[in-house]
Amino acid sequence: MTGFFTGTGTAMITPFSADGGINYEAFGKMIEYQIQNGTDMLLVLGTTGEPPTMTVDEKVSLMRYAAERTAGRAKLVFGCGSNSTAHAVEGARLAEELGADGLLAVTPYYNKCTQRGIVEYYRTICDSTKLPVIAYNVPPRTGVNILPATAEALAEIPNMAGIKEACGNMEQICETMRRVRGKMDVYSGDDNLNLPILAIGGAGLISVVSNIAPRECRQVYEYMQAGDLKRANELEDRLLPLIDACFTEVNPIPVKYGCNLIGLDAGIPRPPLTELEDAHKKIMEECIAKLGIKKV
Fold first, then answer.
1. What angle do CA 160, 49, 195 make, to 5 degrees?
2. Beta bridge partners of residue 41, listed in sequence order
3. CA pair distance 260, 270, nearest whole angstrom
4. CB atoms closer than 10 angstroms to residue 149
5. Rounded CA separation 258/71 (Å)
6. Cα end-to-end distance, the chain, whole Å
């Protein structure tokens, strides 16, 4: 299927308080910041949200809060992927019950299944829910790569809405786009590749950097939709240092620090992730100052 969502989506941080619990007040402020700046979709419990360190009860509470606070003002996608198909199905059913508009399911990590296994994993998830499902391809984290022919097979599943591409290989992404065009959507899942993925027909962005700069990410998308490559490139040139700063260490370590700088109380990541190194803090501070992003 195509058209589930177009535009910009933000892979939301989960803010943690000083005592280690979820900071719901800060999360609500983040949701409002995104909506006020034109973000079309909020992804909760994606990689940036640190779900591996959260209990089931915490995930349920966060999803319920997100649905109540968003109140239909933006599309809500909840992460449900797992290295166990049965667990992914449980997560999909729970997310649907708690008010998700769609689901994001990362490929089965660690197990390193075959391409056939990938197709069966997504088919089983899709069969368990009425919601649109977006596959998340991020082999640097999972050790599993959705190849273009496999993406083409996934596109035949009726409620398979798209693929969030973060494989880092633009040649592969172009071939995937060729095979699935008009059947399911492709989204940029790598901020460094936002422009080229949009240029080949990507339906939108699912961004980490938009936690800090949602308005600017939205403007890049709008310029590309209008065919204004000059303005899109000029703005992307300004954003690239911030994009690089957000990945000086593993996500979401840097972006959490960046959010703290602009008044969004993201706290620090849960172990085994650590606080951002001092040298990288300076880089983030300089990038945000140069872009002129004001405190919320």
1. 60
2. 9, 75
3. 15
4. 12
5. 27
6. 37
* Domains and their CATH numbers in the chain: 7-224 (3.20.20.70)
Interstrand relation of 75-79 and 102-106 (parallel, antiparallel or unpaired)? parallel
Q: Which residues are catalytic?
A: 136, 164
CB atoms within 10 A of CB 241: 16
**SS3 annotation, the chain:** CCCCCCEEEEECCCCECCCCCECHHHHHHHHHHHHHCCCCEEEECCHHHCHHHCCHHHHHHHHHHHHHHHCCCCEEEEECCCCCHHHHHHHHHHHHHCCCCEEEEECCCCCCCCHHHHHHHHHHHHHCCCCCEEEEECHHHHCCCCCHHHHHHHCCCCCEEEEEECCCCHHHHHHHHHHHCCCCEEEECCHHHHHHHHHCCCCEEEECHHHCCHHHHHHHHHHHHCCCHHHHHHHHHHHHHHHHHCCCCCCCHHHHHHHHHCCCCCCCCCCCCCCCCHHHHHHHHHHHHHHCCCCC
Q: Is the dihedral of CA 188, 207, 75, 139 positive or negative?
A: positive
* Unique residue bearing structure tokens 């990590």: 109
pLDDT, one tens digit for every residue, the chain (296 residues): 999 999 999 999 999 998 889 999 999 999 999 999 999 999 999 999 999 999 999 999 999 999 999 999 999 999 999 999 999 999 999 999 999 999 999 999 999 899 999 999 999 999 999 999 999 999 999 999 999 999 999 999 999 999 999 999 999 999 999 999 999 999 999 999 999 999 999 999 999 999 999 999 999 999 999 999 999 999 999 999 999 999 999 999 999 999 999 999 999 999 999 999 999 999 999 999 999 998 99
Distance between CA atoms of 123 and 121, rounded to whole angstroms? Answer: 6
